[in-house]
Design brief:
Length: about 140
């Protein structure tokens, strides 16, 4: 019976080895499934992140375009106001020059028609504290 016991022992060991091989194969399949699931999740996250980055990129591009249009508008408005103020300054300067010319002409006419003392009094009354001295 020793041969039969040995045969039984070998069959038991074979069955045990086959069970261990089956368990190892099952564990390998489980690991492969887990790797596939992880790869799938990684791919999904990569797609989500790529989409999010594309949306952010699009939003930032639109924001930059808007700010560039605003900048161009402000530059145009600045140039327009600058031109307008320059024109107003030139008109004001021309007005002052005409007023000065008229006043000078009036004074020259008075000088021709008045005595020196009267002219001095007229200038003092017109210009307040301005003292003009003439030598005659």
């Amino acid at each position: 019976m020793a041969a039969e016991d040995e045969l039984q022992l070998l069959r038991s060991q074979l069955k045990k080895s086959e069970e261990q091989a089956r368990q190892a194969a099952q564990a390998g399949l489980d690991l492969l499934r887990q790797v596939d699931e992880l790869q799938e999740r990684l791919d999904e996250q990569r797609v989500e992140m790529t989409n999010a980055l594309e949306q952010d990129k699009y939003s930032l591009q639109k924001e930059v375009e808007l700010k560039n249009r605003m900048l161009e508008s402000l530059q145009s408005e600045y140039e327009s106001v600058k031109k307008q103020q320059k024109q107003q300054l030139e008109e004001h300067q021309e007005h002052l020059e005409r007023s000065h010319s008229v006043a000078l002409s009036e004074l020259q006419n008075k000088v021709g028609h008045q005595r020196p003392g009267a002219l001095l009094l007229a200038l003092r009354s017109k210009h307040g504290s301005v003292l003009l001295r003439f030598r005659f």
